[in-house]
Amino acid sequence: MTAKITVEELATDLVAILDRVEHKGERITIVRDGQSIADLVPRGCPPGITARELVERVGNLALPGEGFADDLEAIQANQGVADVPEWPC
Length: 89
What we know:
three-stranded mixed sheet, 4 helices, YefM-like fold, alpha+beta
């Protein structure tokens, strides 16, 4: 999970926050006036998310209903190949 801090917290404790990112691998979102304005991530971060982040995002989703697999196969059969750009860190 990404921690959120305010611009004021960043200004007050910059060195400690950078240490968290560098040494603990934390991802931190900077917030100003309630809006996310930037993310601090470790340099060379791997693509994707951690298993813990996946579980947090998925939560308690219900299982798909009958015919879900058939619907997916029909969709896949009727679409072209996507042009997928590289994912940013």
